[in-house]
Amino acid sequence: MHSNKASTPSPFTFGIEEEFFLVHPETRNAVARVPANLIKEVRRRFGELVSPEMLQSQIEISSPVLRDDAEAREQMSTLRRGLAEVAANRSLSLMAAGTHPLAAWREQNVTSGARYHEVMAGFQILSLRNLVCGLHVHVAIPNGIDRIDVMNRALRWLPVFLALSTSSPFWNRQDTGLLSYRQSAYDEWPRSGIPDLLAGETEYETFVSVMQRAQALRDASFLWWAIRPSLRFPTLELRIADVCTTLDDSLALAALFRCLIATLVTRPELGRQRHPHTRMVIEENRWRAKRDGTQMMFIDDLAENVVSLPDVLAELRALIGEYARAFGCERTLDRLNVVISSGTSAHKQREIYHTHRSAHVPRRRALQYVVDWLVEETAR
């Protein structure tokens, strides 16, 4: 998310970041080395709205500050389309998926840059295995509101965002049996997953300070939680979601998160009831989301029962209804009902793969068919 100082501030502005793989159109594999002039070309066209990632096979787009759904759609479609055009001019394709069906982490190369080399030195093999792409959504928090308090109250809903975004069923050319292997890969990293329930921003800042003095991290951007207060912006940043192959899905999840945060800010009584086991239940729901996706059965720690994801989404949409109407994003949110009925990118990827395997197509060729669909859907 990049700031736009010329614009007029409005409540609950937001930003969207999407990570992509760069793909060789013949082999369908992730490219090991990206042409240097590709980054120069996209920077000429889009400035800092496009940036490299730690591994050369990946690239990220970041929106300017957004005020409504129409602006989000225009900006993100322009960035996706423009980046795909630049890649095509370099004989490369753009692909949105949480993991690459064919890519092998051992074949990756780290992008030059002080931060990337710092991460590589500190985390070694984990850095090369970080061959995953996510969707990040920022929502601005008004002055005077404790971001950690809002974050705590949003935690129980995080597995919903993962279940609705799963796009990473393959890893190292294998069907993992999970719908979001990306989240499992992230679990190798320290300071990832669901954060602890801290008392507020003061306690959070104390924790960061302790970690800095211990030389465990340079700054708070080295916290890779599923949701976190942004270091650079006055926002809460959703990080749990896989990148969505279909832009409509990204926009719907961004709208959902924006409405949820706005609701929690303006209704401070919401989400305060919890049990000693609440965080453990949230972690269990995260596991169910990455394994089962939209078929997950959501554990309600307060009612002490299980609920289907369609029912959980209906409850969430009722909760945020006032802001969905105020922001004019009800039609955008309706896309999530389509995701529940038709499945996520992960469902489609596995369907394509197993259809071809059932027809005795070799495994690598079946995975190439999956990549073909991902590239086409990303561009569409």
Features of the shown structure:
380 residues; alpha+beta; Creatine Kinase, Chain A, domain 2; 13 strands; 46% helix
Structure description:
This protein is of the alpha+beta class. It contains 15 helices and 13 strands. Strands 1, 2, 3, 4, 5, 10 and 11 form a 7-stranded antiparallel β-sheet that branches. The chain has a two-stranded antiparallel sheet with strand order 6-7. Strands 8-9 form a two-stranded parallel ribbon. Helix 1 (36-46) packs antiparallel against helix 2. It starts with 13 loop residues before the first strand and ends with a helix. The model is unreliable at 3-9 (pLDDT under 50).
**What is the annotated CATH architecture?**
2-Layer Sandwich
The percent range for strand residues is 5-15%
What string gives the helices and strands in order? EHEEHEHHEHHEEHEHEEEHHEEHHHHH
- The N- to C-terminal Cα distance equals 23 Å
Count of extended strands: 13
Mean pLDDT: 93
Which structural class do the helices and strands define? alpha+beta
CATH class: Alpha Beta
Q: What's the CATH topology label?
A: Creatine Kinase, Chain A, domain 2
| Biggest sheet layout | 7 strands, antiparallel
Number of helices: 15
Low-confidence stretches: 3-9
State Rg: 20 Å
In helices, the fraction of residues equals 40-55%
| Global outline | globular
> What is the number of domains?
1
